[in-house]
Structure formats: structure tokens, C-alpha cells
Write a structure and sequence with these properties.
The structure holds 2 protein chains of 2 kinds. By secondary structure, chain A is of the alpha/beta class. Chain A is about 40% helix and about 20% strand. Chain A has 2 domains: about 200 residues, 3-Layer(aba) Sandwich (Rossmann fold); about 110 residues, CBS-domain (Roll). In chain A, helix 1 packs antiparallel against helix 2, helix 15 packs antiparallel against helix 16 and helix 18 crosses helix 19. Chain A is globular and about 85 Å long. Chain A starts with a strand and ends with a helix. Chain B has 26 helices and 9 strands. The termini of chain B are far apart. Chain B is of the alpha/beta class. In chain B, strand 5, helix 19 and strand 6 form a beta-alpha-beta unit. In chain B, the strands form 3 sheets. In chain B, strands 3, 4, 7, 8 and 9 form a 5-stranded antiparallel beta sheet that branches. Classes of the chains: A alpha/beta, B alpha/beta. Chains A and B meet through helix 4, strand 6 and helix 6 of A and helix 10, helix 11 and helix 14 of B. Chain A: The complex is probably composed of two ATP-binding proteins, two transmembrane proteins and a solute-binding protein. Chain A: It is an enzyme of class 7 (translocase). Chain A: GO terms for molecular function: ABC-type quaternary ammonium compound transporting activity; ATP binding; ATP hydrolysis activity.
Chain lengths: ~400, ~575
């Protein structure tokens, strides 16, 4: 028995919902329905079953109805028709008291803009869910502090949200949701407002949490990479309707329709990707200034065994390996004496043409424009790019 | 439009509604009036019982506690209050404070829940918004009329009018503040299963607090501005000083009273702004519990002293009289002389200056005991005819009063009938409600001047005398509505224009009238009023003293001390 069972769930915004429903049956597009009836289709005839303990990601572009769908689950938005069964209990038919009970005990929500109360401290925010259930102050404080400890935020418990960074605030949001010890966690684009690095960290943390707590997590995202990293199963939505449900692998290898194919960027990458698309920032040494010791230090800190050599004007001058640098140190030579050549490519060269070059080259390739260094291409990136395009070719 | 329907009797409808309310709900109105008066008199007495020096020091210390960083405000509080005390306006300040506090508290008690209701229910908002617009744009004066009809004169109708006028900002800002709570926070509160009440008290009100406080601050300021207007219907306080200064064109007095109001407004404004602290500020300052305790301590010491003092002060209730008058120089003189004399004989007299029509109405309704300011038979004939069944006319207290159109002696014209184009065809009048103005309007029609484009410009008795003085200085034409006894006849060379059609009547008498059952209630007071009599010369003496800069009380005392026999005769 699935944890969450969604059957024929529909939400139409506006007044003339009956007429709009009729038009949706006839497969009339969203914009035309809006023109004819003034009603907006938020979600239409969604059927999903979500198992206990899985991370279920719902994806789609903005306006696809994914945020509406998640709010229908805890009835922040009242459904027009259909039902949401949680442990065989139909949430959409509950009276006020029972609905409050479900919200308090079974589900908690995390928001894109964090949704922290600015006038409450971090601790008061975290214990909010327990506070409104009437839990005794000392018990709820203990639980909230435990949740903050798990999020490494206990030191900040007496601060206010405005004094914390975005990542910290979202960890508080997550701690607040978990302090309730819910069975289901609803996450509405929870990491979209964070910068990419923190976003990755948060995704990792979420995965760690999941191994520890085994909650059912329904995660909304518009980012394919995020979905692939954390999702056990993914549903893709368009105009309020589900296009495809499956594991990341299934969706990448067998897209159900053109929309999904477009969504996962179904293009032959080797035909369009250029050197510029796959190059990475170079790790270089200025051989007119740096000596061999500096070069060796740089290699240690950057964890590489060679550096691209440039002059003061960032003009490309060659390549310095760790052996070269050691030799220069021993014999007291300047770096310019020991630099060797490395293959160069122009920035608009296609990946398909780079393939044979990189196969033979002992060093990475330098991407050069009019003698100046732009970046370098390493073997891994090329393989990655080609692998992605290969996957989509074998349809 | 007019030809199609004719003029709609809207004014009549409104009168009928107010009449119906007054007759059918009189029990409730009277109850509110009695309780309200008791409460507010008690509050004012309590505030006044706190010694001024203690009040000033207490508020200064509070200012110091609340804004230790800004010494400017502390100094301002101290100096400003000292100034008010020094100008003998302390009792007025306390009355005003009571009025403002009670109006504001009632506005908050009604306004905040209404604002919450508006923010929660769309249809309530749709109904209430236009009503609020109506309340805020309708001139404050308009509320005074039904206020008197419902609650009589004094502080209760003042509060009533202030509340109507000052309520909207609190309602609006509460509604706005709650609607402005970010949607994702509301969703968060809902998603954790908050009941509507929990959501309101844990999220919406705390977040809307600063907006609501801004609204309350506005409300307090509006209530303060209503204080002056409400003094026309007998609300005590600084407003009376401002109003009488306007009516007597007394620049200095008006400025001093106005300044006292400004001081009070700024102090209240700054204190209410201090209450508005954002949570981040709390973190930086650290909440200091001792502040709260110190503030509470000061508060209780002040209240305690007030209680103790009022306990000591409340002696036996003396024989009381509620005397009402209009702020014309003549009536100021007579009412004050009578009041001072009666006080010297152990009576307690409450003097309330009012607009003329309201003065008549208040005696007729039994809300005031008596007035010695009825000019009969002509000047106040309209009021007398309206209320004659509801009052007890005791007869004249001064004979030989005259009214008419008055010009400087240097003007050639001698009769109203000879007027052509003098003074730009303009007659400078006094308060529009005065009986004399009705007579002047009649005269314009009777002598066919209206059709020639003559105008009667209403102002106030004070403004009229200022205009007269200015014109005489510049040797210009001016025609004013004048009366005797009046000090202007002592000061300038003036003459009455002849009135062949007797529109202004012959020489008039100034009469005393009381409410219907004063004779049974307060026979002693009634007897004094019956005996009160003096002459035109007496009155003009007092008036001249006042116009030369003496205070009314001391001018009255001087006259009383010089005429002991005459005064004693009143109390036989």
C-alpha cells in the first residue's frame, strides 16, 4: 500500500470551473481555456502513488502546476475534485479539526523562501509546530534543540532569521519541519533560492537525513540536475498534467513524449558543443614572475601535476610539469627554460573534432584565442559531454 | 435636475433620524453620558490630583528611560511641561489628556478588532472602506451636532466626535498590516496546523504591530486635533483657550494654548513611537527588564499620589451650578462676575463656553442649569421660539441693550435705508449662529439691499472687532453687526445706523433663563439667578478692563469688591 495515493486530482482557479473542466476534457490548451472562461487550470487529473520512505521529485517549468500540486496535498489550496489518500485516509474530505491533526502530525512543509517568522528567534521558529499542538515548553524546547543540533545550528538558537545566511535559514526551515517528527516532508523548491554551492551541500545533507530518518519526501524542483541527484523517482509536469513518472534513468533513456525529450535537452551534443562549452578555468603560472618553488607550491595546493605557463599579458607560453619544475629547482633555471609545448585548440572547435586530439595528448588542451589563454580541456569533460549525447541517441 | 424632482429633503430626513434616535434611545444615551462623565471627571480629577512637579519629573524620567540616547527629547519634555505649568494651563492640559486618552482607547478597542475582521472577510472590507472614507473626509464640525443631541454638552460628546473622527487610521492600518503579512509565512503557519486564532496571535498581529502602532499614532494625533473643535460643545481643556482666543481675536492667548497642544502632541507622538521596536533592535539593545520595572514604579507612585491627594481634596459637595455662556465679550463678563460672586458665597460653579444655539439647546435639554445670556426679544428670538416651552425664563438681568449695524462716526451714512455702495457692499458679521446675524440677514432683505448685491460675511466677535480697529486705523469704510454693552463703544467713535423698519428691534434686555426643573432641584441657586441684576455701565467697566489686558477673573473680582452691596443683594 502506497503512503500517498493521488487520484484524479484537479484544481481550477477562477469562477467558471465547470466550463473549464469540460474544455480540459477536450484537450484544449491552457491558454485557450483562460481566454474562453477566465479560469486557470492549475492541476489536471493527476494520478500518482508515492511509497513510504522514497524521495519523490516533481519537476516542471514555472507555471506547470507543481507548486499547486504540493499545496493540494496538505490542502493549503482546496482541490476542485479528486482525492488525496494518506495511509488510506482521504485528506480532501476531512473536516477542519481532522485536517489540522493531519497537518500537525503527518506532514510538514519547507518553503522556497524559507517562510521563517521574522519576529521569532531560531529556537522559537523551530518549536512553532510543537507549540501550536500545545506541547509543554520544556519538552518542545528539547525537541527543537535536538533538531537544530542535527542541522549544526544550535549555537544560533537565540538569533533572529534576518541575522542568518540563506543556507542557514533554510536549514532552520528544515529543522522546523523535522522537529514535528512528521511522516511526510513536503519541500517546495526548497533549495532554489540558494546559491549553487550551498545548494549542493543542502542536497547532500538532505540525502544524509534521509538515510537516518527514512521519511517520505515529496520534493518540488525545476532543476533536472537536482532531481537526478536526490530523486528516487521523478514526475515531470506540464500545464498541470503529469507527462511521465519514473526513475532518473528511465526518464533519461526513454522519454515518454517530445516535451520530456525537450526537457532533458535532447540534442546531439557533439554536434553543437564547442571547446568553449566544455573548457574549465586554467590553473596557470606566470613564468616571467614565478620561480620553480612557487610553481611547485601551486601544484600542491591545487592538487595537480602540471601548470599552464603564461607571461604577464596572459599570453599562452606552454606547459610546466612537476618534473620540469623540480629539474629547474635543482639546476637553478628559470621556469621559461623548462616549459614544454602543449596542444592548443581555438574556442569554436567542435567537441567531435577535439576527441582525436585529446586522445593522443599527454597534457590537457589549451583553448587559445590570438595567443591568449582562455581555458583548458581535460579528458573527463569530453567523455562526460559525449556520454550525455550517447545516452539520448540510442532511442 | 431641480425641475425634475424638486429639492430632496435630505436635511429633513437626517433630522428625523437623529430625532428618532434621540427620543427612542434616550435611556442608553443618558446612561452613557452619566457613566462617561463620571469616569472622565474622575480621571481628570485623578490626573490633576497628581502634583504638577511630580508629573513633570515622572514623565521626564520616563523619557530618559525610553530614549536614553536622545537627550533632546528628554529636555523637550521637561521644558515643555514646565512651560505649560508656568502658563497656568495645567488643569486644562489634564482635561485634554483625559479626552485624548479616552478617545484613543475607545478608538483602539473598536478599531483593532474591526481592522482584523476587515482583513479576514472581503465583504466586511467592501462595506467598511467607504464608511471610513466618509468618516475621514466629513468635516469634524458636522459630528458635533448629533453628538450634542445624543450626549448633551461636555466631555462625552467630545469623545464621541473624536472617536468618529480618529477611528479610521487605526482600522485602516490594522487591516493593511494583517493583509501585508507575506503569503509564504501564512502558508507556513497553516501548514503546521495553526488554528485561525493561533495564526492571528502568533504570526499576524506580531508582524502587523508596527503598522498598527503607526495607525494608532495617527489616531491619537487626530483625537488631539478634535479637542479644539470639541471645545465648541463644552469639552474642557486646552481647546477652550484656543477657541476663545479665536472668537476674541486674542493672538497671544491663542498662541500659548496652541503651543501647549503642540508640546502635548509631540510628547505623545514620541512616546508612542518608542513603543514600536523591531525584534532586531531588541537583540542589539538587549531587553532590559529594569526599564519596565522602573517605568511601572514611576507610574504607580504617580497614580498613588493622585489617589491620596484626591482623597484628601474630596470634601463635601457644595451647592453647584452648571452655567453656560457664549464667548462674546459681554457674556464672558456677566457669566464670570456671577460665577466669581457665587464661588465667594460657597457655591460650586462650572462655566462652559458654547456656541449660541448649542447653549440654548443644552439648557432646554436640561444638560446645563442656566444661562444669563439671552438677548430678547429680537436677537435670540429664533432660539427662544424654538425652546420656549422647555425653559424657564426668569427675566432680565440687564436692561437697555441695543443691537444694530454699527459704523465709525466719520462715515457719512446715517441710516440703513441710505446704504448704497459703502464698504464694498459688505457687512462684517460675527458667529453665524448668533441671533444678531439672523436680524442682519432679515435687514438686508427688508431694505432691499440683498438684491443690490450686499453681503453679510460671518466671522467671530473677536475677528469683527479686529477688522473694525484695522479699518478705523486706515480710515476706511466698514459696517459691522454691533451691540451694546460692548467695550468698542468706549474705545472708538462709533454710531448705530438708524433702523426705520425696526428690524433689529428696540432696545433689548439680556435675560436669565434656566432649565425647567431647576427651581425644585436647586432652589437656592435658582434664587440667586433670579436676583442677579446689573447695569450696562457695570458691564462695560468689566469689559473694558478685560480688553485692556486684565484677566476675566481679576476684572470680575475688582468689580465685585467695588460693588459689595449690589452683589450681596443677589444672595438675599
Amino acid at each position: 500500500m502506497a503512503k500517498v495515493e493521488i487520484q484524479h486530482l484537479t484544481k481550477i482557479f477562477g469562477k467558471r470551473t465547470k466550463a473549464a473542466l469540460q474544455l480540459v476534457h477536450e484537450q484544449v490548451p491552457k491558454t485557450d481555456i483562460l481566454k474562453k472562461t477566465g479560469a486557470t487550470v492549475g492541476v489536471y487529473d493527476v494520478n500518482l502513488s508515492i511509497e513510504a520512505g522514497e524521495i519523490f521529485v516533481i519537476m516542471g517549468l514555472s507555471g506547470s502546476g507543481k507548486s499547486t500540486l504540493i499545496r493540494l496535498l496538505n490542502r493549503l489550496i482546496e482541490p476542485t475534485s479528486g482525492s488525496v489518500l494518506i495511509d488510506d485516509q482521504d485528506v480532501s474530505k476531512l473536516n477542519k479539526e481532522d485536517l489540522l491533526e493531519v497537518r500537525r502530525k503527518k506532514m510538514s512543509m519547507v518553503f522556497q523562501s524559507f517562510g521563517l517568522f521574522p519576529q521569532r528567534t531560531i529556537l522559537e521558529n523551530t518549536e512553532y509546530g510543537l507549540e501550536i499542538q500545545g506541547v509543554k515548553p520544556e519538552i518542545r524546547r528539547k525537541k527543537a534543540e535536538k533538531a537544530l543540533e542535527n542541522a549544526n545550528l544550535l549555537a544560533f538558537k537565540d538569533q533572529y532569521p534576518s541575522q542568518l545566511s540563506g543556507g542557514m535559514q533554510q536549514r532552520v526551515g528544515l529543522a522546523r519541519a523535522l522537529a514535528n517528527d512528521p511522516e511526510i516532508l513536503l519541500m517546495d523548491e526548497a533549495f532554489s533560492a540558494l546559491d549553487p554551492l550551498i545548494r549542493r551541500d543542502m542536497q547532500d545533507e538532505l540525502l544524509d537525513l534521509q538515510t537516518k530518518f527514512q521519511k517520505t519526501i515529496i520534493f518540488i524542483s525545476h532543476d533536472l540536475n537536482e532531481a537526478l541527484r536526490i530523486g528516487d523517482r521523478i514526475a515531470i509536469m506540464k500545464d498541470g498534467q503529469i507527462q511521465q513518472v519514473g526513475t532518473g534513468e528511465e526518464i533519461l533513456t526513454h522519454p515518454a513524449n517530445d516535451y520530456v525529450r525537450a526537457f532533458i535537452e535532447d540534442v546531439d551534443r557533439s554536434k553543437v558543443l564547442t571547446a568553449e562549452n566544455i573548457m574549465i578555468p586554467p590553473i596557470y603560472t606566470n613564468i616571467e614572475v614565478d620561480g620553480p618553488n612557487v610553481a611547485l607550491k601551486k601544484m600542491r595546493t591545487e592538487e595537480v601535476s602540471g601548470l599552464v605557463a603564461v607571461d604577464r599579458g596572459r599570453n599562452f607560453r606552454g606547459f610546466v610539469t612537476s618534473e620540469d619544475a623540480l629539474r629547474a629547482r635543482k639546476e637553478g633555471l628559470p621556469l621559461s627554460e623548462v616549459a614544454t609545448q602543449m596542444p592548443t585548440v581555438p574556442k569554436d572547435m567542435l567537441v567531435a573534432d577535439i576527441m582525436p586530439l585529446i586522445y593522443d595528448a599527454p597534457t590537457p588542451l589549451a583553448v587559445v584565442e590570438q595567443g591568449r589563454l582562455l581555458g583548458v580541456i581535460i579528458r573527463g569533460r569530453v567523455l562526460e559531454a559525449l556520454a550525455e549525447s550517447a545516452e539520448t541517441e540510442e532511442k | 435636475m431641480g425641475e425634475l424632482v424638486g429639492k430632496l429633503p435630505v436635511a429633513q430626513w437626517v433630522e428625523d433620524i437623529v430625532d428618532w434616535l434621540t427620543t427612542n434611545l434616550s435611556g442608553m444615551f443618558n446612561f452613557i453620558q452619566t457613566v462617561g462623565n463620571k469616569l472622565m471627571d474622575g480621571m481628570t480629577a485623578g490626573l490633576t490630583a497628581i502634583p504638577a512637579w511630580m508629573f513633570i519629573i515622572g514623565l521626564t524620567v520616563l523619557a530618559l528611560i525610553f530614549s536614553s540616547k536622545k537627550l533632546g527629547f528628554v529636555f523637550f519634555t521637561f521644558i515643555g511641561l514646565l512651560f505649560i505649568w508656568n502658563q497656568n494651563l495645567w488643569a486644562d492640559l489634564m482635561s485634554t489628556l483625559t479626552l485624548v486618552l479616552v478617545s484613543s482607547i475607545i478608538s483602539i478597542v473598536i478599531g483593532v478588532p474591526l481592522g482584523i475582521w476587515m482583513s479576514k472577510k472581503e465583504y466586511v472590507a467592501r462595506v467598511v472602506q467607504p464608511i471610513l472614507d466618509f468618516m475621514q473626509t466629513m468635516p469634524g464640525f458636522v459630528y458635533l451636532i448629533p453628538a450634542v443631541a445624543f450626549f448633551g454638552i461636555g466631555v462625552v460628546p467630545g469623545v464621541f466626535a473624536s472617536v468618529i473622527f480618529a477611528l479610521p487610521p487605526t482600522v485602516r492600518m490594522t487591516n493593511l498590516g494583517i493583509r501585508q503579512v507575506p503569503n509564504d509565512l501564512v502558508e507556513a503557519a497553516d501548514s503546521f496546523g495553526s488554528t485561525p486564532k493561533q495564526k492571528l496571535f502568533k504570526l499576524e498581529l506580531p508582524l502587523a504591530t508596527s503598522t498598527i502602532l503607526a495607525g494608532i499614532n495617527q489616531t491619537i494625533m487626530l483625537a488631539l486635533s478634535m479637542v479644539v473643535i470639541a471645545s465648541m460643545i463644552g469639552a474642557p481643556g486646552l481647546g477652550r483657550g484656543v477657541l476663545s482666543a479665536v472668537q476674541n481675536a486674542d493672538v497671544g492667548k491663542g498662541f500659548v494654548n496652541g503651543l501647549a497642544l503642540v508640546v502635548l502632541a509631540i510628547i505623545i507622538d514620541r512616546f508612542t513611537q518608542k513603543l514600536n521596536v523591531s525584534p532586531e533592535d531588541k537583540v542589539q539593545n538587549g531587553s532590559k527588564p529594569w526599564r519596565k520595572w522602573a517605568a511601572l514604579g514611576i507610574f504607580f507612585v504617580m497614580i498613588g499620589t493622585g489617589f491620596a491627594n484626591s482623597f484628601v481634596a474630596s470634601g463635601a459637595k457644595a451647592k453647584t451650578l452648571d452655567l453656560v455662556y457664549v464667548q462674546w465679550d459681554s457674556e464672558v463678563a456677566s457669566s464670570n462676575v456671577l460665577a466669581v460672586a457665587m464661588r465667594q458665597h460657597g457655591y460650586k460653579v462650572n462655566l462652559t463656553p458654547l456656541d449660541n444655539s448649542i447653549m440654548w439647546q443644552s439648557v432646554a435639554n436640561g444638560q446645563a442649569d442656566a444661562s444669563v445670556s439671552a438677548w430678547l426679544p429680537t436677537t435670540h428670538s429664533a432660539q427662544y421660539n424654538k425652546y420656549k416651552d422647555q425653559i424657564d425664563l426668569l427675566g432680565p438681568n440687564l436692561k437697555g441693550a441695543t443691537t444694530g449695524l454699527v459704523v465709525p462716526k466719520y462715515m457719512k451714512v446715517n441710516s440703513i435705508a441710505d446704504l448704497t455702495t459703502e464698504a464694498n457692499k459688505n457687512i462684517t458679521g460675527i458667529e453665524p449662529g448668533a441671533g444678531e446675524m439672523k436680524a442682519a440677514t432679515k435687514a438686508l432683505t427688508a431694505y432691499g439691499l440683498k438684491s443690490q448685491g450686499w453681503q453679510l460675511t460671518p466671522a467671530s466677535s473677536g475677528a469683527m472687532t479686529v477688522a473694525l480697529g484695522k479699518a478705523i486705523k486706515a480710515h476706511q469704510d466698514i459696517i459691522v453687526t454691533g451691540w451694546q454693552p460692548h467695550w468698542m463703544f468706549q474705545k472708538y467713535d462709533l454710531k448705530y445706523l438708524k433702523d426705520p423698519k425696526h428690524v433689529f428691534g428696540e432696545a433689548e434686555t439680556i435675560n436669565t433663563f434656566t432649565r425647567k426643573d431647576l427651581k425644585q432641584d436647586k432652589p437656592k441657586v435658582y434664587k440667586v439667578l433670579k436676583n442677579f441684576k446689573w447695569t450696562k455701565a457695570d458691564m462695560e467697566k468689566v469689559m473694558l478692563d478685560v480688553s485692556n489686558g486684565k484677566s476675566v477673573e481679576s476684572a470680575a473680582k475688582d468689580w465685585i469688591s467695588k460693588h459689595p452691596k449690589q452683589v450681596d443683594a443677589w444672595f438675599k
